[in-house]
Design goal:
This protein is largely without helices or strands.
Amino acid sequence: MLGSCSTCHDGLAASGQPANHIPTSAECDSCHATNAWTPARFDHTGIATNCASCHDGTRATGRSPTHINTSTTCESCHVIAAWQPASRVDHAQVLGNCVSCHDGSVATGKGATHIVSDNACESCHSTVQWQPANFSHTGLTETCSACHDGTRATGKSTTHIISSTSCGACHATFSWRPVTQVDHTQVSGSCASCHNGTTATGKNAGHIASSTACAACHATTTWKPVTRVDHAQVTGACFSCHDGTLATGKPSAHIPSDNSCDNCHSPLAWQPARFDHTGITVNCASCHDGAKATGKPTAHIASSNTCESCHAVAAWKPATRVDHTQVTGTCAGCHDGTKATGKGVNHIPTSGECGTCHATIAWQPATFSHTGITSGCASCHDGIKAPGKNAAHLFTSSTCEACHSVTTWKPATRVDHVQVQGSCSSCHNNIKATGKPATHVVTTSECSMCHGTQAWKPATGFTHDGITATCFSCHNGVNATGKNTGHLSTSNTCESCHTPTGWKPAAKVDHTQVIGTCFSCHNGTLATGKNSGHIASDNACDSCHKSTAWKPTNRVDHAHVTGSCSSCHDGVKAAGKPTTHLPTTAECSSCHSTLAWTPAKVDHTNITNCKGCHNGTSATGPSTGHMSFPVNNFDCNQCHTTTAWSPNTFKHRVGGGYPGDHRVTLTCKSCHTTSTDAATWRTPAYKPDCAGCHSSKFKADPHTKYGNAKYTVSELRNCSGACHTYTDSTLTKILKSRAGPEHRITDTELH
């Protein structure tokens, strides 16, 4: 066969496709064999109709009874290779609702943590994927808080009012704010936790002073009218409300009182009231007038109407006291021995009223009035009936009235000295009576020695008898004649030189009392002064003399000598220089002190020849072994100072054969081996160069002149090192140079 199946099997030449054959453009051999039409091997290639045109449950397998409710467009989800697994689920072909598949069996259903809701998945989810979801509260079957717990979804904020978890009681599902209402049945906090003026409306400025327990008076539906007034929550005073404006106040007939209502009334009702006098602002009689309340009985003593002056508010009797300022009758009207205490049997006979002597506070002490008394004072004032003279009283007669008045003992009206029987000083001691003032002459004599009884001044006469103080206590130029302007400069002890009978002549001159200098008297005018032979000195006599006699002198105080040392120490007036003294024209004070000749301090100023004294005889000379100076003939001051022998201050002068100070420590004998100023050179031929001592340490090898030729010690005697190395013996061309000097006296060793 060279043609296709259909070239024969076209229904004319041979059997073709029957009327019920699946519509296809494919050749017969795509499904059939050449030996028989059936069984056929089905190949979907070339099928021109949709799946359902065959897969209708009759021609070919159709949808099973458990197939989801969809359209008949099989190819939207299945492939031609096999029914299962489906290549995808095209939700556009699904005719049932979501849960008809997504029930946890046919397809994935709601997870265990899915919020409780109905089965309308499409309310929140799309057919593309589960998430993200477009949330809708429609269909939710659980309470808001089942999700809105702060974990699954936003919960109550930290500032949320204290309430139950029934969000829907106040909030809508489309937004938290604004709330649709406030359901107070769900609020679990106190009213004030919200109604604080910030979270919600609080108490206004005109609210009565109260606690924050709003519910005690208000309902949750509205503030006004209040359901009641719970006085237990009121914190202000009663009157802050009960002022006749906010609430009922005191009626016009109320007892005058302050505004402390709670003194008498309870918060339950005004009446009955418990009367409390606290806060009453009027006096007792305004009520206790015998009409409004009990008043004074007929037997009451004559008094004013100020009940409170004597009675307490607790009870009429007993009276707390008797306020005599309120009594209107006389003292005797009560104090008759019957109504109240009267005069005792030992009372002084008198016809005067009690008030003449006694106060209303107590009988005693009494303010006694002598009115009507005809006997002398002592008839009562005998120390028994009435106070008499006390133990400290002046020694006098008993005629009190001679000095005292009837008003009071003190002060006495006068002192009648006729009645005084003691001495003057027994009273005039500055305690009982005026005594001697601080400026009085110090004396042990009685006042009457100088004074009369009429007055202190003028004094009747003066005597020095009994004077115990010094003369100057009176003779100070104020109380009595003192020292005149020409008096010696002395202390104020007059009696050291004068007698009490007369100033002149003085009995003696006590030099211990003289406070001026000696010269203030011993000036050759007032008293003997210095004679013509006196040494040159200042006028401080007491520096050398004593007050008992001019000679012999105590000492010679050189501080007061004004002449030179030699003006006295000339070998005649005073000891001069001994024959062994150093020849000098200097004054003694140049070397000696005024205390003693020795030890002396030698002043070397201007001395130029040390050896003139320091020769081992006149003064210390050079010690044994001391270096000599035959070359330079040095004096001591070449090495020593005038203050001390050591330390040695000698310094070599650079030049003149001295190479300079070496870095290493050298003693004098390192160079001056013969203890003279002539240095000892180890190699004298090379002095004064370095090689004069260090030629033995010269090493030719490092000191190349040219080729193998070396410099000699003589050529390098100053140890400066070989500066140049030449090319040949002509020494005209320098091969290399070296910076010098190579060796220095400051080095610790030769290099």
